[in-house]
Amino acid sequence: MENRYAIILAAGKGSRMKSSLYKVLHHVAGKPMVEHVIEQVEAVNVDEIVTIVGFGAEMVKNHLGERSKYALQTEQLGTGHAVLATADLLKDKKGTTLVICGDTPLLTSKTLKELVKHHEETKAKATILSAVARDASGYGRIIRNEANLVEKIVEQKDASESELLINEFNTGTYCFDNEFLFEALTQVGNNNAQGEYYLPDVISILKNKGEVVTAFVMDSEDESMGVNDRVALAKASQLMTERINKEHMKNGVTFIDPANTYIESDVVIGSDTIIEPGVYLRGKTVIGSKCHIGAHSNIFNSKIGDNVVIHSSTIEESIINNGADIGPYAHLRPNAEIGEGAHIGNFVEIKKATIGNNTKVGHLTYVGDATLGEDINVGCGTVFVNYDGKNKFHTTIGDHSFIGSGTNLVAPLTIGRNAATAAGSTITEDVPDGDLGIARGRQSNLEGYAKKMPYNE
Ligand code: UD1
Ligand code: CA
């Protein structure tokens, strides 16, 4: 037991977002803000995390699940009032409580650990995580006395003109001695510009009692950013993207234009992979080494091997093995698995299908609900007819077969090994190993008839 606790404030309405979605669920680099926050808090090693949620915040609970306990703040009467909602769960604990806002997605566990260390070493009853900005407007300002010791925090809306000039601000993250926190909270009033119970008032309450309160000044203004509106949301996403991309570059990934490449925080990329502009890599995507991910590709929750080339394609929940090449303009829908060295060409859609090693599906083809062996050639314009409007059916094709262009493969169907279909066939019966399936009307030529066509009239 570390005797450490954490409180995440996530009950605020977020009215400045002008949104029907809860503020802390807005995404920064593909992930809800509160998710970024809880990940960093988890890395600090606390005994218990309590997230404060508001009326209608089932979505926050559903999102974080059992990673946190919850306290309900039914009316949003301010950050101090919010923390009091955790009293039943935390009030009697001895130790250090970290309080953090759900709308500061860029704060890192490294900074949080430094804050906790500083708080415990100085034996303070409260430590504010502060930062210095060129322009601190919008934030609560840190007021220090002549001896440079922290006196209080003044909110923007309550600040005098001279206080507004102060550029050290409250990041909304603090460490408290837990018992002193709950004791002081009972004394916080709401006589201020916003008529709210401010958590920062705990600082002056403890100070006036003669307790030690300090500020730990972090060195990155960017990291401390709080998101209150969509302008800040976009800025936070941009900063998070820069941070993520820089990390990949340090690990040996080449970016042609990092400012226009969007990689979510859980994505893994091997070295010597090259990523062109406009690429989105999302969810739990893993990309191997020496891959080339071409412009405007969008890859979600997929596993890509080494030496894979992807041109301008969309790939969802699929697996692409070493040396395969995809696109341009291919769409791999969930559960496509592409074998080693296979080629998936332009305007090909693949869904719930396994494509064997070195098989080629080059052009304008739909493959759905199918198992294809190795070294098969699927001709242009082939359609796997897998759906009768109600049920889906499977097609299997054996190794080394050749599917002629424009074939309709009406499932359920099995094409054997070394088999073939004639171009333009609508295949409804199985084709045994080594056979050619042909299913099309015979051609007859009408002699001299072309000149009788309507366009010649
Ligand atoms: C707060 C701080 C300010 C600091 C800034 C840092 C207060 C009074 N002010 O201001 O000093 O500089 O953060 O970003 O604390 N919340 C609740 N219940 C409530 C009100 C808010 O849970 O009744 C939650 C919000 O969901 C949010 C967090 O508390 O995650 C902060 O609230 P917000 O309204 O964004 O405070 P700021 O005005 O940004
Ligand atoms: Ca805020």
Summarize the structure in words:
- With 457 residues, this protein is α/β, with parallel strands linked by helices.
- It contains 9 helices and 39 strands.
- The strands form 6 sheets. Strands 13, 14, 16, 17, 19, 20, 22, 23, 25, 26, 28, 30, 33 and 36 form a 14-stranded parallel sheet that branches. An 11-stranded parallel sheet has the order 12-15-18-21-24-27-29-31-34-37-39, covered by helices on one side.
- Strand 2 (27-28) and strand 3 (31-32) form a beta hairpin.
- Helix 7 (178-185) packs across helix 8 (201-208).
- The protein is elongated and about 105 Å long.
What is the structure about, briefly put?
The chain is α/β, with parallel strands linked by helices and 457 residues long.
Q: Total strand count, please? A: 39
The residue ranges in which pLDDT falls below 50 over 5 or more consecutive positions are: none
Q: At CATH's second level, what is the architecture of the largest domain? A: Alpha-Beta Complex
CATH topology of the largest domain: Spore Coat Polysaccharide Biosynthesis Protein SpsA, Chain A
Name the structural class.
alpha/beta
CATH homologous superfamily designation of the largest domain: Spore Coat Polysaccharide Biosynthesis Protein SpsA, Chain A
Biggest sheet features: 14 strands, parallel
How much beta, percentage-wise? 25-35%
Bound heterogens, unique: uridine-diphosphate-N-acetylglucosamine, calcium ion
CATH top level of the largest domain is: Alpha Beta
Number of helices: 9
- Percent in helix: 10-25%
- The chain-level mean pLDDT equals 96
Rg = 31 Å
Number of domains: 2
Q: What sort of overall outline do the alpha carbons produce when their principal axes are compared? A: elongated
Termini, distance in Å?
94 Å
